[in-house]
Amino acid sequence: MTIIGLVLGEVLGGSLITEAIFGRSGVGTLVQKAVAAQDVPVLLAAVVLSALVFVVVNLVIDLLYPLLDPRLRGKEDLR
């Protein structure tokens, strides 16, 4: 699960390069144009959005651990 979360984060971050290579319009094109125009608010929004997506994906992965591995579930009170 950890590997899946990290790879998914890398894929989302690497989409900028993929868009530039294949000439697809998207966030990568937007960032590239913002860098050329020195548009700091757009760059800031793109970086924050990318970081937010990465954090949310890893949070979801961490929250799924107890559902998939019974050893990580809380122990019942045996009184």
Percent of residues in helices? over 70%
> What share of residues are in beta strands?
under 5%
What structural class is derived from the secondary structure elements? mainly alpha
Q: Ranges with pLDDT <50 over ≥5 residues?
A: none
Pick out its properties.
79 residues, mainly alpha, elongated
What topology emerges from the helices and strands here?
Elements: H1 2-22, H2 27-37, H3 40-68
Helix pairs in contact: 1-2, 1-3, 2-3
Written overview of the protein:
- The chain has 79 residues and is mostly helical.
- The protein has helices spanning 2-22, 27-37, 40-68.
- It is elongated and about 55 Å long.
- The protein starts with a helix and ends in an 11-residue tail after the last helix.
Give a short overview.
By secondary structure, the chain is an all-alpha fold.
